[in-house]
Amino acid sequence: xxxxxxxxxxxxxxxxxxxxxxxxxxxxxxxxxxxxxxxxxxxxxxxxxxxxxxxxxxxxxxxxxxxxxxxxxxxxxxxxxxxxxxxxxxxxxxxxxxxxxxxxxxxxxxxxxxxxxxxxxxxxxxxxxxxxxxxxxxxxxxxxxxxxxxxxxxxxxxxxxxxxxxxxxxxxxxxxxxxxxxxxxxxxxxxxxxx
Length: 195
Fold this sequence. Notes:
Layout: E1 2-7, E2 10-15, E3 17-21, E4 27-30, E5 40-46, E6 49-55, E7 57-59, E8 64-67, E9 75-78, E10 84-85, E11 92-97, E12 100-109, E13 113-118, E14 130-136, E15 140-153, E16 156-163, H1 176-189
Antiparallel strand pairs: 1-2, 1-5, 3-4, 4-8, 5-6, 6-9, 7-8, 10-12, 11-12, 11-14, 12-13, 13-16, 14-15, 15-16
């Protein structure tokens, strides 16, 4: 189980271990400290995919929290319904490095992350730093992403980003359903199958 919450202008994500489900279907979770009373984004994985919902937590004891199961229907996403390799020349991306836009091409996109090819010079980047990624042009999606790897490939750079905060929808970023629709449309447009 992953739990996301805002910490200033960044997202923080912690991993929790489900301990029990009580008689109201609330979840008893063992995890590092999370804010009680603040809105949380929750994602649970099972053999069929991932369930996303928003909730609140209250602390029971040292590291056990009760997370209320949502009254609305959670969003369920199939396990492989959203992964796609795109021809890199077809899907542009822009990332923001220290308030400067850097243009690149998407090599691979999924709900979990983005593999980006950059041919231009880029400012110094730090692993685990977060930035806004703008993917596509018409339509486009905006996601918050965390840098997880940097590789030098020939004369360019390949950056791997993990999309963060999907469980926690924001007005200034694309929603989970918009991202799923975007990837599906890109697959159809470029005649590639999502796997």
